[in-house]
Amino acid sequence: MAALIAAAAIKLSARKPTLAQAVSAVPSAEPRPAGARTAVPLVVAETVYSSKLAAGWDDWGWGPHDLNNGPARIVFGNYGGIIFHHAPLDANIGAVSFRYRADAGAPEFLAVSLKGAGGGERRLPNVPVEARHVALLPDGWREVLVDLSELDPDRLSFDRIVISAALPVKSDWVLIDNVVLVKPSEVSSEAPLRHNVQLAISCRKPTHPIDPAIYGSAQGDWASGQTGERVGGNPTTRFNWDLGVWNIANDWYFENTKAVDLHQILDNGSKRGSPTAVTVPIIGWVAKDSVSVGFPRAKFAQQRKFDPYRAEAGDGHRADGSMITPGPPTQTSVAASPELIGRWIAALRNRDRANGTHSVQMYILDNEPSLWNETHHDVHPEPLGYDELLDRTLRYATAIRKADPDARIAGPAEWGYLGYLYSARDRAAGTEKRPDRLAHGDMPLIPWYLQRIAEQEKAKNIRLLDILDVHFYPAAKGLYGENARTDPEGAALRLRATRALWDPSYKDESWIGEPIRLIPRLKDWVATYDPGLRVSLGEWSFGGDNHISGALATAEALGRFGQQGLDAAYYWDGPKAGSATFWAFRAFRNFDGQGARFQDLSLVTEETGNVSLFASRNPDGSKIVAVLVNRNPNVVVSTELKLDGCGRVASRRVFRYVSGSSSLLAEPPGTLDGSRLTESLPPYSLTVIDLDITH
After folding, report:
1. DSSP H/E element including 97
2. For the chain, which domains are there?
3. Which residues does 632 contact at the CB level (< 8 Å), separation at least 6?
4. pLDDT digits (tens, 9 = 90+) for 154-169
5. Three-state secondary structure along 417-439?
């Protein structure tokens, strides 16, 4: 799945050294006027416009302007100007710089401002360009450098750079070029900046329950406080429950091997009071033994590579990377009909009855079916279409419901954004052509799928699907997977990418290039096409598991899940014991090591800038737990947290995780003044505030 994301992504500019390059200002060819600054080399954090718009930046127009190749041509007459737009950026830069050329001898007439992202139009200063901002360059060019302390003194996130006229000027063309965001100086980066923010928790506004199933995982450590385990991933598509074997697909040379012990996993969950989410094969085939391989060397001698530990197992690709036409599915597998799956489910229920348990949280209808032609190419070489997905869903869900009337059935477990909107057949032909989607009313795949299932449920008077389940990973290159980026720009991008979960104003900074608003979008589809379904993320992760940015992104996601009313989520391949993401889970599930946790009712909060606030209380209001995420990498934030209608604070505790921490550490709480708490949040930090309340 991660490989597909990488393949789909538009190649982003390398962050090092491209965006860490030094832009050397040429010494001035004119006498320097009084008060003008001296030209010095600038270290670029992000290029906005250099002869053309940089990747990720948009022209939001305004007055007459021309942004074709070369310096931008702009008319500033009638108070004209230009707006450069980007997805929200963290204010971890030092300055904004650009070069311009106007009539010789003209006074400084420009102004620069930033516009805040989200939450309406936050007013940031409009800074007139003065002589102290300007260095004179050869050929009439001037280089403007405005420190962020003037443009954004509170270090709020921003999404627009505005260059405008501060004075009435003639309607002549002015050249603008080399618009860049500059890295902080060495002095400022060593001494963290400080600013104050006001936050609020309201106990007067409506609450909603937080489903504990959002804290699930796949292959995680129970000490993280995870609330459930998902048995999933590519091998489960061909998991033979009778024999305890599966095929590990293109993850490793299409080999049959011994599988996990399903009963042991189910029993583990039951003992902890945490039912398991189990992936159920619906591809029609399961592994027949623990030794067969999909592309044996004896039948396919010319393959790209072979398993270095098992020489007969090939990767199913020719030397040029194209896929080999496979032999019959019986090379590795036996047929797995709906009746077989129904028999397996019935056996599990009988086992549970004998043990007095109900060990399965949900049955998930396979794993990423629109990738079968790649992941399970040896048994399903043809791309899956709308009709086959629906047919398999209906037949297998019916068998599961018959075997376990109380089952929660989830699907379609699609891999990511394109999988929500198109079938595998569409992607094979090209999404612009999208022949399969056009043949089905040009409806995106999941809305069509939900609509047709709802029709069948009504016609047959049976519930076939209980949960809309999809997978989600950040699509920007390098955020997830092996060698995930943890450089400063990559870390900041990881944190911004979490906005794709909920924020309609956030344009995904990847090949997607448009707002995703994942949880609201899924809820909207359910409300429109099959009301009553729950919504689950069967796999998710933002990568960087061992880096502070991974911890903060994970905490951000867990907080949004509760805030947005998600019903279930399973963190993929972790959290591993001691990892940064492990402590993000602990912030919500066991922050003091004695079982203290985020509570069950979500409270309305007011947050600002790069500080996120998630708050919860118990049913009687005697306990409030808040989690604060400071996404600023170099800013210490002093927060004044107002409690509105929550009662009197009887006692309080604070726990914190920062870069380099080995655990969540108890710290002395800040000051308390009536209903206002003050806490100092270190750069890139995760803070838990635990309050006992009296009324």
Report:
1. strand 95-101
2. 15-190 (2.60.120.430), 196-207+606-694 (2.60.40.1180), 211-292+332-597 (3.20.20.80), 294-328 (no CATH)
3. 90, 91, 92, 155, 609, 610, 611, 683, 684
4. 778 889 999 998 888 8
5. HHHHHCCHHHHHHCCCCCHHHHC
Q: How much is the pLDDT for 14?
A: 25
The first and second tokens of residue 72, run together, are 């931008």
Which is nearest to 142 in space by CA: 151, 150, 133?
Answer: 133
Sign of CA dihedral 154, 156, 161, 165: negative
Kindly compute the dihedral angle of the four CA atoms of residues 157, 542, 215, 571, in this order, to the nearest 10 degrees: 170
276-294 pLDDT, tens digit each: 999 999 999 999 999 999 9
3-state secondary structure of 679: strand
Closest CA to 369 of 333, 339, 393, 343: 393
The secondary structure of 221-263 as a DSSP string is -GGGT---BEE-SGGGGG-BTTTTEEE-GGGTTTBEEE---HH
Residue located via tokens 């309406």: 120
β 601-606/193-202 pair status: antiparallel
> DSSP label at 18?
G
pTM: 0.78
Query: Which two tokens mark 338?
Result: 């709906």
Instruction: Name every residue whose Cβ is closer than 8 Å to that of residue 682 and which is 6 or more positions away in sequence.
Output: 192, 630, 636, 656, 658
The full length of the chain comes to 695
HSE toward the beta carbon, residue 35, CA cutoff 13 A:
6
Residue 455 CA to its chain's centroid (Å): 33
* Cα distances (Å, whole numbers) of residue 504 to 77, 118, 241, 288, 501: 34, 9, 42, 47, 9
CB-based burial, 272-309: b 16+ in 10 Å, e otherwise? eebbbbbbbbbbbbbbbebebbbbbbeebeebeebbee
